[in-house]
Structure formats: C-alpha cells, structure tokens
Design goal:
The structure is a single chain. By secondary structure, this protein is α/β, with parallel strands linked by helices. It contains eleven helices and twelve strands. The protein has an eight-stranded mixed β-barrel with strand order 3-4-6-7-8-9-10-11, surrounded by seven helices.
C-alpha cells in the first residue's frame, strides 16, 4: 500500500481537527498554505498553442500539490476522504493559493486556468460571495479577470441552475469559462450546451483513445470542427509523447497540454527552456522527422 492510502485516514482526521489554514510566503516569493501537518502548494503546467508554426506558451493550469508530514500525497486521495464541507474548505484554500501565486506568471498575455468542482456549488447566495471573493483576490494579485479561465470539472451536479448562475456571473465579471475533461463523467455535450464555454478541454483518456485508430481520430477532428463552428476553442490534454503532440496539432485544435510538452513545476514556476526556445527548437526537429 502506498503512502497516500496509508495516511489517508490520518489526513482526514488531522484536517478535521485543524480548523485554521495559514498562508506563508517563502523566500522565493511563493505562498504555501498549511493546516497543521498538511501543506498545500501551487504547481503550474504550461499550455501551448502554435504561432506561425511554432509552439508558444499560451497559459498555465494551476494544480494543487499536497504534503502530509513532509511526504507528497495525491490530492485526489485527500479529497475523496474528506467530508463535503472540508472539501469545500480545501478547494477554497487551493483557489486562493493559486490566484496569489499567479503573480509568478509574469507574461500578462498568458491565461491562468483554475479548477472549480461544480458538485460543491450549493446555493446562488454563496456563489455570489464566492465570485466577489475571486475578483478581490485577482485584483490583489495585480491581475485582471480576463487573464483567468474558470475550469468547470467533470463532476455531476444535483442543481445545474447554480452552476449556470456561476458561469454567467463569472463571464459578466470578465473571466473566461472552460468545460474541463470533456468526454469524462458529466463533462458532455449537455454541459457545453448549457454553459456555452469559451474553451473546451478534452479529457486526457479520451484524447489518447482517439489517437489509437483512424476512425476515432477522425471523430475527434469532427468534434473539434463542430466546437470551432460555435466559436469555442479546444485544448487537448494528456499529450505524453512526440507522436501525441504531432497528432494533436494535426487535429486542428487550438491549445495543447501534457507531459510530452512540459511537466508541472512548483510556484514560482518559470520555464526558461521555452523562453530561450531551446526545447521548442528540439521539439520541432522531432515533429519534422515524423
């Protein structure tokens, strides 16, 4: 049994007993949140687009990294063990942490993608307070709402109207909206039709499955075209190999994400190899050889 599973009950109990979450700023300028022996950090993973045939960083997804008693554990294990009210606290903490650490993304042209679990959205009144708090934190970080993409993750909801309220409210406040993990769980055409997002991010498993046969790949291309016809941009996730990157670019999608391009890094994140184009040049050499 791995450490995440062994420590899950202890993490659950510990979080419930540690009611206070503290933020601290490191010497590198990045912020960490802690609750007793639990520690939360932000990692950023670049998202790329092609510009005149060259891959360029277009944005970063903020990802949560968790440690318990100094040992890294899976955020999913922690979330699955927590009560709904504690999950809400962890999500609010991670969101505040990510927005604060977005200061390390110096290029204001880069989008910042932040996840929102729709199953935790319960009432319109609380959603209004949530939206106002996000705007406040974004301004405090010296950023503008237009730089942020609110990713609605794949969880099912019991009250879709509350999620509609959030989507419309965030868009009215200047934020972009994305449906995350399209093709998984409740991230489907119905959700896209209800929310009409600016961006759709395809589920990693769905993407890699589509790459396995010409028939599935053709269906992927058709779906990308269908979304484009509605003015929706497409991100393909889960690109792990050079062949994945090549197929993703050929699909006509707008943006690309995965370990085959760049792995997440703990904030303050910088990707100097892409800034100096050395990785980009090498990647394009490999793509040209396919």
């Amino acid at each position: 049994m791995n450490h995440s599973l062994r420590s899950a009950p202890l993490m659950q109990q510990h979080f419930q007993q540690s009611s206070q979450v503290n933020f601290s700023r490191g010497t590198d300028g990045a912020y960490t949140a802690s609750s007793g022996k639990l520690q939360f950090k932000t990692a950023f993973q670049p998202i790329f687009r092609t510009v005149q045939g060259q891959l360029k960083i277009a944005g970063h997804e903020a990802l949560l990294r968790v440690a318990f008693e100094g040992v890294t554990v899976s955020p999913g294990v922690l979330f699955n063990r927590l009560r709904p009210e504690d999950r809400l606290t962890v999500e609010a903490t991670s969101r505040a942490l990510h927005i604060t650490n977005s200061r390390s993304i110096k290029d204001d042209r880069n989008l910042i993608f932040i996840n929102f679990d729709p199953s935790l959205m319960s009432a319109e009144g609380s959603i209004d307070r949530l939206m106002d708090d996000i705007v406040y934190r974004v301004r405090l970080a010296g950023k503008a709402p237009r730089q942020f993409v609110c990713e609605i993750t794949e969880q099912a909801v019991t009250n879709p109207s509350v999620v509609d309220h959030f989507a419309h409210g965030m868009r009215a406040r200047g934020f972009l909206l994305a449906v995350d993990d399209y093709g998984a769980a409740a991230s489907n055409r119905l959700r896209i039709n209800r929310l009409y997002p600016d961006i759709v991010k395809f589920d990693a498993v769905t993407v890699r499955s589509a790459f396995r046969t010409p028939k599935r790949y053709a269906r992927l291309i058709d779906e990308v075209k269908r979304l484009h016809s509605r003015g929706i941009s497409v991100v393909l996730e889960g690109l792990e190999t050079i062949n994945h990157v090549d197929l993703a670019i050929r699909s006509g999608s707008d943006m690309f994400q995965g370990f085959g391009l760049a792995k997440p890094r703990i904030a303050p994140a910088s990707f100097p190899e892409w800034a100096t184009k050395s990785d980009a040049v090498e990647l394009h050499k490999q793509l040209a050889a396919i």
